[in-house]
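Problem: given the chain below (108 residues), write out its structure.
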Amino acid sequence: MLDKIYVNPATSSRNRPKYYGKFINKYIYEPIERGYLKSKLDELNINDDKTRKARFHQWLTDFGASQLTLQLGKVMSMLEFSPNLDKFKENIRRQQGLTIQPKLFEDL
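Solution.
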């Protein structure tokens, strides 16, 4: 999906550009709990020499993993219908402005 949005030839897990990682941090991890998740994972996961002990998702509880799955679904669906990176960013900004009011209706 990122290859499509960045208009890159197909990549594999061994030859992806570093900016894909920045994209994942910005649009997948940082929005979860308004950045708390990302900052906590950075604390747990980064060694003194700036290397990582494990992949981020390996530190998550079952609840954290379900939140990550939800966020991945949101981003993947936006990537699917966005023709380019600028349109994706516009769609994300629009989506972030939406709120859900759970108390809007009485229990039906």
